[in-house]
């Protein structure tokens, strides 16, 4: 039998759950995993209409897909999301922690509500989704979406960068805790998709000469979702 190419699985064999998979980078990841032959569950919070559209696009690729609403700031909702996805598809083989918030928080005016919002969704949400999924997965892969901001301090975005630095640490910790059953890796995008409200001129300066976009991020996720489980605890930067 001819060996299967890396990044391809037998169609319908595996199920991926992509948090925040309705829009932007999460949507690109969900579509890439579907093209790699996986059935795909996505979560959304306020983007119900976009989630329905993404499910239609996933189904147009010939895969089975479903969307589930969840506010992942609440760990109980993360656990329910995993349970609902398993009830619908029978299993989870890949968890992609993509759901995140990003907005400016100047140090002198950052509020407790803003700090908690960013850390609760971006870091605590990923932790408890991973915990819930790992309890139900026999083997598989967890891919966390980090950010180059985890290594670069942006004074106007300190709570966000804290959350993404935490994602890098979470990745390394889970890789040890879950080996050899589950591989845990991280894709850390650079400036690949302009955030809502981010000044266009500043964005163009940041991205000048950079070849990376959301598709490259999605390809990196597919690699980690299909690679041997001996590849674990890695953080891969995409873009700059």
Provide the descriptors you would attach to this structure in a database record.
single chain, about 240 residues, Rossmann fold, seven-stranded parallel beta sheet, 7 helices, about 15% strand, disordered N terminus
Intertermini distance: 41 Å
- Continuous helix count: 7
Uncertain regions spanning at least 5 consecutive residues: 1-9
Total domain units: 1
Helical coverage, percent range: 40-55%
Question: For this structure, what is the CATH class?
Answer: Alpha Beta
Oligomer: single chain
Give a short summary of the structure:
Helix content is 45%, strand content 15%. It is of the alpha/beta class. The protein has a single domain, classed as NAD(P)-binding Rossmann-like Domain (Rossmann fold, 3-Layer(aba) Sandwich).
Notes on the structure:
It is a single chain. The chain has 240 residues and is of the alpha/beta class. α1 packs across α7, α3 packs parallel to α4 and α4 packs parallel to α5. The N terminus is likely disordered. The chain is built from seven helices and seven strands, in the order βαβαβαβαβαβααβ. The N and C termini lie far apart (41 Å). β1, α1 and β2 form a beta-alpha-beta unit. It has a single domain, classed as 3-Layer(aba) Sandwich (Rossmann fold).
């Amino acid at each position: 039998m001819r060996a299967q190419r890396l990044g391809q699985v037998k169609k319908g064999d595996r199920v991926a759950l992509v948090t925040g998979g309705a829009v932007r980078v999460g949507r690109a990841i969900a579509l890439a995993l579907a093209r790699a032959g996986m059935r795909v569950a996505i979560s959304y919070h306020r983007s119900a209409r976009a989630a329905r559209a993404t499910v239609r696009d996933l189904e147009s690729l010939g895969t089975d897909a479903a969307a589930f609403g969840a506010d992942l700031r609440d760990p109980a909702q993360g656990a329910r999301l995993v349970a609902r996805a398993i009830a619908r598809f029978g299993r989870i083989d890949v968890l992609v922690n993509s759901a995140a918030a990003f907005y400016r928080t100047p140090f002198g005016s950052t509020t407790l509500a803003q700090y908690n919002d960013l850390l609760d969704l971006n870091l605590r949400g990923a932790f408890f989704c991973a915990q819930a999924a790992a309890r139900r997965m026999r083997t598989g892969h967890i891919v966390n979406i980090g950010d180059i901001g985890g290594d670069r301090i942006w004074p106007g975005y300190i709570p966000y960068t804290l959350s993404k630095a935490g994602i890098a640490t979470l990745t390394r910790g889970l890789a040890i805790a879950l080996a050899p059953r589950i591989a845990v890796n991280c894709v850390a995008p650079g400036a690949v998709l302009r955030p809502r409200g981010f000044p266009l001129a500043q964005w163009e300066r940041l991205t000048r000469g950079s070849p990376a976009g959301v598709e490259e991020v999605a390809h990196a996720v597919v690699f980690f979702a299909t690679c041997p489980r001996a590849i674990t605890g890695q953080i891969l930067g995409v873009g700059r």
